[in-house]
Amino acid sequence: MLLQIPGMLMAVLILTMGLGFFYQKQLPGLLRFLLVALLGATVLTSYNFGIGRDAASAGLLAMLSLKPFETHSSRDAKSLLGFSLFAPFAAFLQDQGPLTLGLSVVAYVLCLMAFAALAQTTAMPWRSAIKSATSATLMALPLALVGFWLFPRLSTPLWGLPQNALRGGGLGDRMDPNEWLDKLTDDRIVIRARFLSRTPSRNQMYWRGPVLTHFDGVVWIRDQGAKVRRRPLLQNDPAAITYEVMLEPTSTTDLIVLDLPTTAPENSKLTYEFAALVHDPINSIQRYQGTSSLNPTFAEPLDDLTRLMTLRLPDELNPRTRQLAQKWRQENPDPVALANRFEAWIQKDFKYTIDAPLLGRDSADDFLFNTKRGFCQHFSSSFAVFMRSAGVPTRVVTGFVGGRYNKVGDYWMLYAKDAHAWDEIWVEGRGWVRFDPTAAVAPENILDTLEDTGNDESFTESMLSSTFETSDWIRRSWNELILGYNSTRQKSLLRPLGFDTEDAKQLAFIFMIGAAVALSLTLMLLLRQRRENLHEVERAWRIFIRQMHRHKLEKFSHEPASMFADRITELYQSKTGASAERIRQLCARYTQWRYENREFDPVEIKQLVLDLRQFRLS
After folding, report:
1. Positions of E strands within 273-430
2. CB burial class (10 A; 0-12, 13-18, 19+) of residue 25?
């Protein structure tokens, strides 16, 4: 859980836990109150005073870090261990990767070891504690596996999770040129994409997300009406590309697709603006296939409503941009020529940097004629304002571009920092055409990949790169096998066995059968553990009693060994005197070891075990 919280908060919590471990005295009530208030404020400020499952999980961890300050008895220690088991569960709300699972298993086993030690009145050897915790884990494992693979999985969940206070790697329904700095420095992987047909060139790998149409002078906003309007028809493209995407949780409803999608991925729909949407926010890994055209041609003209919306600008803003755009339009009204001229202008005089100054009320004028420094939001926003001022329908598209090729797994990795914004202009006879003014200024910042610099890597860099790619390939395989196991895959697993996967009763019956088998295995492990805990003399004595039972000489449960020996001797003294005497001796030696606390040396114990095991009634 510590690995999933902001660094400063992690340092504060580790320091608090260390103080709680070394400071054994009870703190005054006022000081404890101040600590609670301080940690609470630290958690809230770390998450920008947002309330979500990430902030709540961090709050739980903060309270756990304070619990040692009031742990002074065995009962307090047991309470602390019990509450600590919630920490791995909270970690799974943020990440379900193999590292989180491995660390959670270690934490779980350590808690079980501590529980086992607290249950003893004397000091417990650490090896015995490990054995006890491992045995308990193994007994729970069969039922856990059955629950994972066979418990009926619903296509839609019964309940949802609250969103995080800090958003995931997804893109929102708005774009402010003065924002996005957090995304451009985020190293988390958002997309893993594999091409199933041919692989496009890197300058064509634009991954489409939300499309922004409305502009209020500062912020670009999505047109919500586009979600219900019929999308335009495209001409058939025989060179369309098919691909597979594994999308990390983004807390949005947008599936990221290769630009421009021709069909909607399963369980999604394409909007009028060719954005792929699902019904619920994406809070778990999504795996889907798509088909896209790299050179789409629209089969329908631009409708009047869309033309009006993609030309609209706030009045009396950005006068210098308007004036320049209208001047250039008079010189050459061709939309492509205007766009190319704009890109040639900014290519000479502008600089790409994320350390951009804030823009004023006339944001396009301020950027184009004053600061001339910025990142993709500044370039795409100013380009759209310029083209609209020139009478060209224009909209802003957000998504991802660039990425890194994983040679081990043969797929592309795109990070949250690969978030990007570009533009589309309407060209008669072709439709919406992509222009990326940022790439005109700094193509190395947009389309650069590991392959571009791979020839210059040192041996150490190459080894580190291979290690990282291998670890991410393991993570992708984990996502595919474990996290991607949903109702569809469960049905495909059970259908070849002849089960009706659409019948809820059959699915429940399969789970109950599997659970019964798992519980039987658990019971076997439990019984075996009890046998293993018996002393070797006790195991030999039970073998001896079973030998008597086969000759119809039953030992009553309430009968001491000495009385059993007397009864057998009385019955068989006349028939088998030697055997009766042998039984008396064995019972007497066992009674001395078991009840009289006589010290037996190892040789005597070994001989008693051997005599009990080898006895046969003649």
Report:
1. 276-277, 286-292, 351-352, 373-374, 394-401, 404-406, 411-415, 419-427
2. exposed
**pLDDT value, residue 454:** 43
Task: Report the pLDDT averaged over residues 504-532.
Answer: 80
The DSSP 8-state label assigned to residue 573 in this structure reads T
Q: Please name the amino acid found at residue 204.
A: Q
pLDDT band at 140 (very low <50, low <70, confident <90, very high): confident
Residue 293's identity, in one-letter code, is S
Closest to 90 (Cα-Cα) out of 196, 15, 164: 164
Q: Which segments of 261-345 are extended strands (E)? A: 261-263, 269-270, 276-277, 286-292
Average pLDDT value for residue range 425-440: 93
User: Which of 20-29, 102-111, 177-186, 474-483 is predicted least confidently?
Assistant: 177-186
Query: What predicted TM-score, i.e. pTM, was given to this entire model?
Result: 0.72
Length of the chain in residues, anyone? 618
Closest CA to 293 of 259, 254, 245: 259
Does residue 196 share a domain with residue 96?
Answer: no
Q: Which residue reads 């005089």 in tokens?
A: 349
Q: Please indicate, yes or no, whether residues 64 and 181 belong to a single structural domain of this protein.
A: no
Cα distance between residue 247 and residue 594, in whole Å? 65
- Regarding whether 114 and 206 lie in a shared domain, the answer is no
Q: What does the alpha-carbon distance between residue 424 and residue 173 come to, in Å, rounded to a whole number?
A: 17
Mean pLDDT along residues 279-307: 91
Q: Is the pLDDT of residue 66 over 50?
A: yes
Q: How far apart are CA 318 and CA 386, in angstroms?
A: 9
Average pLDDT over residues 91-100: 84
Residue from 192, 171, 132 nearest 254 by CA: 171
Q: Is residue 456 part of a domain?
A: no
Q: How many CA atoms lie within 13 A of 355 on its CB side?
A: 0
3-state secondary structure of 317: coil
Strand partners, 222: 212
Sheet with 276-277, side-by-side order of all strands: 254-255, 276-277, 269-270
In a 13 Å sphere around the CA of 263, the CA atoms on its Cβ side amount to 13
Q: Which of 91, 124, 157 is the last residue of a domain?
A: 124
Instruction: Out of 409, 433, 451, pick the residue that ends a domain.
Output: 451
Mean pLDDT for 531-545 is 80
Strand 189-195 and strand 174-175: pairing?
A: unpaired
Q: What is the phi-psi region of residue 369: left when phi exceeds 0, alpha when psi lies from -120 to 50, beta otherwise?
A: alpha
| Residue 220, strand partner residues | 175, 215
Rounded CA-CA distance 75/127 in Å is: 24
Quickly count: other Cβ atoms within 10 Å of residue 139's Cβ.
17
Count of the separate structural domains present in the chain: 3
How many angstroms separate the Cα of 396 from the Cα of each of 177, 255, 493, 598? Answer: 12, 17, 43, 90
Residue 285 class from Cβ within 10 Å (0-12 exposed, 13-18 middle, 19+ buried)?
buried
Please state the rounded mean pLDDT for residues 184-203.
Answer: 87
pLDDT for residue 205: 92
State the Cα angle at 502 between 501 and 503, rounded to 5°: 90
For residue 476 the two structure tokens come to 């992708």
